[in-house]
Amino acid sequence: MSEIWQLHLGPTSTTTPIAPSPSSRIATKIVPIYPLPHEKMNQTTQKAADVTVEVIDNEQDFTAAFEIISKCFGEQTNDAFWKAMNPGWDTPKGKSAGISRMVKRYQTVTKNNSGEPNTIHLKATVPDPQNAGQRVIAGFAIWAQLSMADGQGNKPSTDVTTAADLEDLYPGNKSEQRFLKQCFASFVSQRVKTLEEKASTASPATFSLDLCVVDPSFQRRGIANKLVEWGLVEAKRRGELESTTEGSAMGRFVYQKLGFKPVKEVVYDVDAEFQDRKLPPNLFMRTGTVA
Where does the UniProt annotation place the signal sequence (predicted)? Predict the structure, then answer.
């Protein structure tokens, strides 16, 4: 997702845009820009072997990004949360809507009080096996500076309406809207709690991995490592910021090798009627000290 998620974590910002009954509830424990086109940044490209990581500066790249995300969460892991956040993801209409949501997030990136973009979209490219001399997008990631302190980053919330228009996704369908509210609140609860605890400290912000996916055809080639390493270097450049993420069942091992420490498994507190849905295993992780 993190990673993992494409739309689901579009936090509320405190900065200005520059261009988302107890008896009937169950607790389910589950284990998982930069600059806009006219701006530039140092170290926007890192290379390792045949993998190149770059900051996205072309909205057309989100078509490929959504395709990769769909392969990972819609097909490979059959993630009920992601699919609910992207209704019709496997139809032309749903795909178009999903891409549009990603582009909108890209277009409305905000800056912190140091002038740094609060959200960075990355792509990882490799040589195209079907077309000699060309490259293809094989991985995608979103890094976000988050904070409860004004001007220090996007302010996260457990309220899903800060990340998505539920009525637009499910007009009049209160059941599906309730499912998303419960899943979203459960998924980000530890992230929000951590930032609330850091709010009054000397370093109130985190540089968090919001999403990291690799096309199944290119997995296990070190691509995820490069997308994560890029963000960790950027976190250091921004003032030794701590990083957090919600690691999937596969992703957590990559993150742990790169310095993330396990904190707590995500527990989905959802109504009993949703218990048969396949919710994603995720582990909240952070690079700082774990109590």
Answer: none
